[in-house]
Each structure stands twice: as structure tokens, then as C-alpha cells.
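User: Here's a structure from my thesis project, written as C-alpha cells. My advisor, Dr. K., wants to see whether a designed sequence matches the one we expressed. Can you design one independently, without my sequence as a hint?
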């Protein structure tokens, strides 16, 4: 599966810019309230990669959850059309790494007697 991280980051950046503008905030307003420096904020709005810590700060600044910030963008990186999930994590069973369908054994010491 080809993953479109750039497309996801760009869509997130556009959303961040939209939320800022909807509130009538200038860059100086948002910088003062978010704890993120000006150049980094501008990169986020242009679609540069964003850390989880910065995403939490941005969501808090807009008084919303990270889920609300990401709503509609998908649950993660966007897969390109026609790609298959198994292309990312192909399962190759061999003698050394065969798939075990049994649940893991519970050690005797962990069992509870009634």
C-alpha cells in the first residue's frame, strides 16, 4: 500500500489554518496561546509533519480534542486508491515464524484457584 503522508499532512495543515482563520486569530495570537514558535506553526499550516505533542497543543489551543482536530481526515495516513493493506504487512509463514492460532499459555503461578 502506498501511503500518502504528504496528502494527510497537507489536509491537516489546511484544517489548522481554517480553524485559526475562523476564530479571527492572527499568527501572533495563536503563537502566544499555543506554546509553538512562529516558524514551526507556519510549517504545520503548510502541511509539514507534526508531532503528537504539537497536535495536543494545537487541539488545546482550539479548545477541542485531537479526535475533533482530525475528524474527517481519516484515522491515519491516507492509502492511495487501488492499494492493498496486505502490501504493507505481508504475512509470510515459514517454519520459524508460522502463525500460531492457539492462545498463549498461562503460567501455573498466574492461575487463580477458587
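Assistant: Designed independently from the structure alone:
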Amino acid at each position: 500500500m502506498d501511503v500518502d503522508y504528504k496528502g494527510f499532512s497537507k489536509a491537516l495543515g489546511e484544517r489548522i489554518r481554517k480553524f485559526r482563520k475562523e476564530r479571527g486569530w492572527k499568527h501572533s495570537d495563536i503563537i502566544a496561546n499555543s506554546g509553538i514558535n512562529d516558524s514551526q506553526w507556519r510549517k504545520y499550516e503548510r502541511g509539514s509533519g507534526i508531532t503528537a505533542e504539537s497536535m495536543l497543543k494545537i487541539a488545546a489551543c482550539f479548545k477541542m480534542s485531537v479526535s475533533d482536530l482530525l475528524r474527517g481526515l481519516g484515522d491515519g495516513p491516507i492509502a492511495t486508491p487501488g492499494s492493498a493493506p496486505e502490501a504493507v504487512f505481508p504475512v509470510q509463514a515459514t517454519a520459524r515464524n508460522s502463525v500460531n492460532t492457539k492462545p498463549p499459555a498461562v503460567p501455573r503461578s498466574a492461575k487463580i484457584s477458587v
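When you compare it with your expressed construct, this may help: The beta strands are 3-4, 78-79.
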